[in-house]
Design goal:
Blueprint lengths: L5 E6 L3 H10 L5 E6 L2 H10 L2 E7 L7 H10 L8 E5 L5 H9 L2 E6 L4 H37 L4 H43 L3 H4 L6 E6 L7 E9 L5 E10 L3 H21 L5 H16 L10 E10 L4 E7 L3 E5 L2 E5 L6 E2 L2 H9 L5 H13 L6 E4 L5 E5 L7 E2 L4 E2 L1 H12 L4 H16 L8 E7 L1
Parallel strand pairs: 1-2, 1-3, 3-4, 4-5
Antiparallel strand pairs: 6-18, 7-8, 8-9, 9-10, 9-13, 10-14, 11-12, 11-15, 15-18, 16-17
Helix pairs in contact: 2-3, 5-6, 6-8, 8-9
Length: 458
């Protein structure tokens, strides 16, 4: 018996684009459906069992976002994965708008045919796996009904037991399959996240001597680092280094880390004269707008972050921090660069206060919060650096880690002692020391947060 074809829906108002994607996706397993506009896309998604939708964003009458919203409203079609295909440049807010409408990915024109086929193949395989699971569930349901109809004889009780064992095995296989699918998706997301971070070979174009110790709690991380160069109108070169700790870890933290990374890169490209404090202010403004940080929404999205700029020609270091401290070690003495006591984006203390003030005009307080938060000035702290100075940017992963002989947190007092110890080592030995130390410190306990330390040897 021939296997049924798998429906793939292409939504595009241009015939040439339709034909091109049909040719690229030609496969004996696929049945290609064509929708010339958003209305046809909604209709076809309700009439057919579709594995994946390739949705053009820009279409007359109803664009891709509007069509996707209607498709996601129906119980029959709300779980169909949608890949947006667009030729227009879009910013982060449009990307997140797409994800809010149920998109699973974006492809930008002109696209690589092999990438398109690969992404479609992934969702086709997921579709096939889901169908297999559904079929097995139906089989299980029929077996259960059969057991209920049997007489309660010894022989039939034995048969029930055998069937129960069989069901356990089937469910175990299903769980194993689902776990594999989930893990495959997470590993794919990890590759995407890692592609944003510069490798050490690239970083040596910016920094001569440094080390990075980076250990995620889960496969994905909410911590990230960012390094970039700028050249202002006067021809002055600066190297920027940032280390950030986003809200949460795992998938939510990873998504926010990519957003923060992109905003920093975009803002520095727009203004090469930015100081670290101005970069933080701009990042704060973008995060608040992007996630609509109002008292009504109470979305807990934000990050703690420290940024420095290095002027190697004039031996000047400028630091700004949003609720994240940094250290400079000079002649075996530790100098602490204290941050502004406000995170980027979400302000939990303020929102809790707003929640308690339900008898007051909430719009007035919300507007005031937006004004104060968006225009928060982050202070720059400058210092002339010397040969032999060592600067450390880091997240709170080490300080918050439980361990030692008493199973308590290291805290910042213990972490400062650790930094002073590694400052006597070269950069590569420092990283090795931290790697061994964290395992010894945990003493068998679970890692509680992402850990990131970026050491710069001046």
């Amino acid at each position: 018996m021939d296997k049924p074809l798998i429906d793939i829906l292409i939504v595009d108002d241009l015939k040439d684009n339709q034909v091109l994607m049909e040719i690229i996706l030609e496969n004996d397993e696929y049945n290609i459906l064509i929708a010339n506009n958003g209305f046809e896309a909604v209709s076809l998604s309700l009439e057919n069992d579709i594995a994946v939708i390739l949705m053009d964003v820009q279409m007359p009458s109803m664009d891709g976002y509007e069509a996707a919203k209607l498709i996601k409203k129906s119980e029959k079609s709300k779980f169909i994965p949608i890949i947006y295909i667009t030729a227009n440049a879009i910013d982060n807010s449009q990307i997140f708008k797409g994800y809010d409408t149920g998109a699973v990915d974006y492809i930008f024109k002109p696209f690589d045919a092999e990438i398109l086929k690969s992404k479609v193949r992934v969702f086709v395989e997921i579709f096939k796996k889901n169908k297999e699971i559904q079929l097995k569930n139906n089989q299980l349901e029929r077996l259960n009904n059969l057991l209920l109809e049997k007489n309660q004889t010894i022989e039939e009780k034995k048969k029930k037991l055998e069937n129960a064992l069989s069901l356990i095995e089937i469910k175990t296989q299903e769980l194993t399959s689902k776990n594999k699918d989930f893990l495959d998706s997470i590993m794919y997301a990890k590759r995407i996240q890692q592609s944003f971070f510069q490798n050490e070979s690239t970083l040596r174009n910016y920094l001569t001597d440094f080390f990075i110790f980076f250990r995620a709690k889960d496969i994905l991380s909410g911590d990230f680092y960012w390094v970039a160069n700028s050249k202002n109108k006067e021809g002055q070169n600066k190297t920027f280094v940032a280390v950030a700790d986003c809200t949460g870890h795992g998938v939510p933290g990873a998504l926010l880390s990519i957003v923060g990374y992109n905003i920093l890169a975009q803002k520095l490209q727009e203004n090469q004269d930015f100081s670290p404090g101005e970069l933080l202010e701009s990042l704060n403004r973008e995060i608040i707008h992007l996630f609509n940080q109002t008292a009504q929404s109470r979305i807990k999205d934000g990050m703690d972050i420290s940024i420095i700029s290095l002027d190697f020609d004039n031996h000047q270091l400028v630091h700004a921090g949003a609720n994240q401290v940094s250290y400079l070690v000079r002649n075996n003495e530790l100098i602490e660069f204290k941050p502004d006591k406000q995170s980027i984006g979400y302000d939990e203390k303020f929102l809790k206060e707003m929640y308690m003030l339900d008898k007051i005009d909430i719009d007035e307080y919300t507007d005031n919060y937006h004004f104060q938060s968006i225009h928060k000035i982050f202070q720059n702290k400058s210092i002339s650096f010397q040969r032999g100075d060592k600067f450390y940017l880091f997240t709170d992963g080490f300080a918050d880690q439980f361990g030692g002989s008493k199973g308590k947190k290291m805290k910042y007092k213990g972490f400062r002692e650790l930094i002073l110890n590694i400052s006597k080592l070269n950069s590569q030995d420092s990283r090795i020391f931290l790697r061994n130390y964290v395992e010894e410190w945990k003493n068998g306990l679970e890692q509680v947060d992402d850990i990131l330390v970026f050491g710069i040897y001046l």
